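Note to self: keep these together.
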Amino acid sequence: MTSPPTPPEHESESRPLIVEWYRVDQSKQVVRVLMIAAPVLLIGCLCVAFAWTATHRPAFMRGIAGVIGAVFNVGGPLYAILGLKQILMQDSYIALRTDGVTLREDHVETTLRWDDIDEVRCHGYAVEFLKRDGTTMAITQRFAGITASELAKRVEHVRKRAAFGMPVLERRR
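Structure:
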């Protein structure tokens, strides 16, 4: 029995590895979807409750309230499910890799190599990449779990490690 072949030493260097990554913060979109879906469901529940308990009202009114309640009870959660699915399908993130920074917005991916970046800084709510050719690329999205200033510090830290030839992947103990 032979052991599986081991990859050559240089193969791990040819494929960039992700050091850190952060998804675009979509909490406002989630809250917006839920702030619409929850009241719709609540109105549906109240209409159904009215239809069941309002025995002193005509049967026609109770029937309409029951149908409206049923439609709202299905429509509210369905709106939430479809809205949240749409949010989850948005694949936007920033990834710090061993070879550079990758920014993905929807289906467009942009990679800046560490050699092309001169400095990374925070300017207000934006992270700015000053390139060696003198141009600037600003990222204005908010990322989940990290502020713009913390992200700029993390990117600059990884960039400096890569510039000095230090390993950018930190070993876990």
